[in-house]
């Protein structure tokens, strides 16, 4: 199974602030208008303070902690405890994490959460057919789950899920470095990612969340079970976009993608699961659906008190940051993308398109450059790029009649292709605000802002891949037999971005 952190922790900073008016409102029909007024009057710092105040009353809370609540509701004896780590921000409560309660060996079951304590679309919508309809045509699973928990949060202690939602509030969408997803960063903080394709991914994802928000009302009237539970609370009136976005990002970081289950059970929110678990790209432990429960079997020995580690799927660091708020320095799945495209103005565009299709490529081809495999990636790009330097019609006919991705390689063509690649990697490196050395210097500062730290770690790892690509390209240039040859002209060279 893949942990699909639908991507960052439950951060409903405004909802705790609004909870008392919600619960005391005698007329649910006028609730939407009151919410909007309260939200607009609430500054973010006030919201944070009220969240802490509410969470700080834990001693007087009859529910106890999350694990105690789960045991009272069917969680069997397990081998984990909830420990606490200090938050980087004094305004935030410390982050909880799941740790081993005793020494564990590889293959031990750390915990097994019964399905009665797991939130899925089947539970939310009460009908697998409705779940399929909604997620196929209108909303993502994340949006449906986020909306459900937002309404449940409104019920306060009346909600069965109150202890779980309270724990997610406490986590506030923070990843392993106590950092929220960049989907919740300010414009100034997003500037830390300048030069990285991740910045564009964040903006694109944010637009997608907005589109889903705009569909909420339509879907609400399709989802009969939810409409019956909350008949007067129209989503876009009950929750401003920023609240929905925070909820969506929170759910994103918590959702588990289960395998070998019906569609309506595929995405699950599992108490004791993410975001309370630590992620490692080199780990293979996964949450799995087994006999009416979701269980975790550890893949390595673990001492009592150590965090429980799970796999978060084959995701590059850009996805880890967007989904979970962290990056992994030892991530074998980390990669950058190089997009190459045939020049549509080339008179021989159609012939070249036939050649690349015959060799399993596209007219706009994406090459994945994995960390540690940069030389292989550069070598894979060369046959494709050489096509851009074939201009003579007779040479093109020779390429068309040949077998395999073979172009007649001349010294001037090879120099031109390698120069184009080197220039491309240099331009990408120049697009960042800092150099690799400056990144290292920033990261050596123990007082560096956590969001700046995680952004710097991401761009540093990207630059290392680009530098390795540039080095591989330079080495190929150095291996050319004649360095006096000028690069071939190419009015229709392939486009790289």
Low-confidence stretches: 1-60
Principal-axis shape equals elongated
Q: Helix tally?
A: 20
Q: In terms of structural class, how would the helical and strand content be classed?
A: mainly alpha
- Spatially, the strands of the biggest sheet line up as 3-9-8
- The average pLDDT score comes to 81
Number of domains: 2
CATH topology of the largest domain: set domain protein methyltransferase, domain 1
Write the topology of this structure.
Elements: H1 14-24, H2 31-40, H3 44-55, H4 66-72, E1 80-85, E2 95-100, E3 109-114, E4 119-120, H5 121-125, H6 128-137, H7 141-154, H8 162-171, H9 187-190, H10 197-222, H11 224-229, H12 235-238, H13 241-252, E5 256-257, E6 267-269, E7 278-279, E8 287-290, E9 293-297, E10 309-310, H14 317-324, E11 335-341, H15 349-358, E12 364-370, H16 374-386, H17 393-401, H18 411-430, H19 436-443, H20 450-478, E13 495-496
Parallel strand pairs: 7-10
Antiparallel strand pairs: 1-2, 3-9, 4-6, 5-6, 8-9, 11-12, 11-13
Helix pairs in contact: 1-2, 1-3, 7-13, 10-13, 16-20, 18-20, 19-20
Quick synopsis:
It contains 20 helices and 13 strands. The chain is mainly alpha-helical.
Please tell me about this protein's structure.
It is elongated, with a radius of gyration of 26 Å. The strands form five sheets. Strands 3-9-8 form a three-stranded antiparallel sheet, with no helix packed on it. The chain has a three-stranded antiparallel sheet with strand order 4-6-5. Strands 12-11-13 form a three-stranded antiparallel sheet, with helices on one face. It has helices spanning 14-24, 31-40, 44-55, 66-72, 121-125, 128-137, 141-154, 162-171, 187-190, 197-222, 224-229, 235-238, 241-252, 317-324, 349-358, 374-386, 393-401, 411-430, 436-443, 450-478; strands at 80-85, 95-100, 109-114, 119-120, 256-257, 267-269, 278-279, 287-290, 293-297, 309-310, 335-341, 364-370, 495-496. β8 (287-290) and β9 (293-297) form a beta hairpin. It folds into two domains: 14-324, Alpha-Beta Complex (set domain protein methyltransferase, domain 1), CATH 3.90.1410.10; 335-496, Rubisco LSMT, substrate-binding domain (set domain protein methyltransferase, domain 2, Alpha-Beta Complex), CATH 3.90.1420.10. The model is unreliable at 1-60 (pLDDT under 50). α7 (141-154) packs across α13, α10 crosses α13 and α19 (436-443) runs antiparallel to α20 (450-478). The longest helix has 29 residues, at 450-478. Helix content is 46%, strand content 11%. With 497 residues, the chain is mainly α.
